[in-house]
Write a structure and sequence with these properties.
disordered C terminus; globular; 13 helices
């Protein structure tokens, strides 16, 4: 009887703390685009009730809407996120029916992927009482989240400031908590042992501690706010770095058990000792209002985290979006659309008022050795002569703030560029826009698939005699005007 009572007390305390936090968080602190608030209200009814009770709540017109993102239990497709896949093309034998084609794409690249991660979550470290630790992870340890966990960073002393992509940041026993630990279950999921594919290199060192890390005061530092620990891909490359940002956004949804998930009052810890910097760093403003930490912040200390998330990683096998195996014939992921809107909203990127009905053509010029269009000026002159086009040539280098780059992209109807990471800007084009990849450099699927995920029209050269590669490695020369290709 005593044990049953104690468990009841434990669960009552959890519910009480949850409801208290719901009432403490203010609607203005929820960082989502206004058009996403109805999904947040449906996910968190207590937050919707707060809006009903607040005479100044600006979202009253959507608070009663019955909608869902797409991963919630019993979420009907008819009320799921308003941008849904379409499958006009042949599936080329992958599946037998159109319905199966749609479902496959939805699971590969849309909110169905989020649902799979949630459904796969397994308890690896089970709490029995309020101050205990807990840990749960999805399959292959792609995503994990925990409470009251200890991470011991004393082993970083003397290892320098150049730790990146290392699988030995932690040794055995340097991560753990007080809980019922299912060791065999965790280690059975540690197959993807790679720095950017899973959290296996870190989680295999997990141990059950003989103490409650925070309650028994064994920590040098206790982090109160939710913390996202990230292992980053190449931060100098927009394509690869946005794999980080996209997977962080998807992880918000996997972790969506509390409305603070969509607050920016959290911490982000980068899993390396390099001081983080990137020309794309402003994108982190979509996720946190605090400074970015790296491992130097905790070097030599035992750090304990009340709430910690190990998000989906940029190079997962069959991951998003670097290794996404897209079924043929489908396009337009609601998850990618929502990510685009989330970033644009967070960085305050607006659609500008049109002064005319001209098509806004943006040519992204590459001033690198390997992505040069030799007759670029001739092409621009030819495009400018077309009365129905408003043409601008842009160079997105360090002198142009990233928010300004996004503003230019978001206000383009046609975006033209040579194959390369700069084409990742297509994620932030308006929904009706088109992408023209001048030459795919023998990598035909990379940006055509990204455009397909974003739901945009994709165009490239069909008549190869209009395109001549100047040499096998470096430069391309376009012999014809783009006017014909755009028409």
């Amino acid at each position: 009887m005593f044990s049953i009572k104690m468990h009841l007390v434990f669960y009552v305390l959890i519910i009480f703390n949850f409801l208290s936090l719901v009432h403490l968080i203010k609607i203005k602190d929820i960082n989502v685009p206004p058009e996403h608030m109805e999904y947040v209200f449906s996910l968190f009814p207590s937050l919707a009730e707060n809006c009903r009770a607040d005479t100044n709540c600006p979202f009253k017109r959507v608070v009663e809407n019955k909608v869902c993102w797409g991963y919630e239990p019993e979420c009907n497709k008819n009320i799921s996120y308003h941008i849904r896949p379409r499958c006009p093309g042949d599936h080329r034998g992958w599946v037998k029916t159109k319905e199966a084609q749609y479902d496959t794409f939805y699971t590969q690249a849309d909110f169905g992927y989020v649902k799979d991660q949630i459904d796969e979550l397994q308890v690896m470290c089970e709490a029995s009482y309020l101050h205990d630790s807990s840990l749960e992870c999805s399959k292959y340890l792609r995503f994990c989240r925990g409470r009251n966990l200890m991470l011991n960073f004393t082993g970083l002393v003397g290892r320098g400031d150049n730790l990146r992509y290392k699988m030995d940041v932690l040794a055995e026993g340097q991560i753990g908590g007080y809980c019922r630990y299912y060791e065999e279950r965790l280690k059975a999921e540690a197959e993807h042992m790679s720095p950017l594919q899973s959290w296996a290199p870190e989680m295999i060192n997990f141990v059950k501690t003989p103490y409650r890390p925070i309650f028994d005061d064994v920590c040098d530092v206790v982090v109160e706010k939710p913390t996202y620990i990230m292992k980053l891909d190449a931060t100098v490359n927009m394509y690869h770095h946005f794999c980080d940002f996209f997977n962080l956004y998807a992880s918000l949804h996997v972790n969506s058990t509390h409305p603070t998930t969509f607050s920016r009052d959290n911490h982000i810890l980068v899993w390396e000792t390099f001081t983080y910097d990137s020309v794309f760093k402003d994108t982190f403003k979509a996720f946190t209002s605090n400074a970015i930490w790296d491992l130097k912040h905790f070097r030599g200390k035992v750090a304990c985290f009340k709430n910690v998330v190990f998000p989906l990683l940029p190079r997962m096998i069959f991951g998003l979006y670097y290794n996404t195996p897209l079924i043929y014939g489908c396009e337009r992921s609601g998850l990618f659309h929502a990510f685009s809107k989330h970033v644009l909203h967070s960085l305050n990127i607006k659609l500008q008022h049109r002064s005319n009905d001209k098509i806004r053509v943006t040519l992204l010029s590459r001033e690198t050795t390997y992505r040069t269009i030799l007759n670029e000026k001739e092409i621009v002159r030819a495009l400018v002569k077309v009365k129905g086009y408003h043409v601008q040539r842009v160079v997105f280098d360090k002198t142009i703030p990233f928010s300004k780059q996004l503003e230019i992209t978001h206000n383009s109807d046609v975006f033209i560029g040579m194959h390369g990471a700069g084409l990742t800007h297509l994620l932030f084009l308006p929904d009706w826009a088109a992408v023209f990849e001048v030459y795919n450099c023998e990598d035909p699927n990379c940006y055509s698939d990204l455009a397909r995920l974003r739901g945009l029209k994709y165009v490239t050269w069909r008549k190869k005699n209009k395109l001549v590669q100047q040499d096998k490695v470096t430069k391309c020369h376009l012999w014809k005007s783009m006017k014909e290709a755009l028409s």
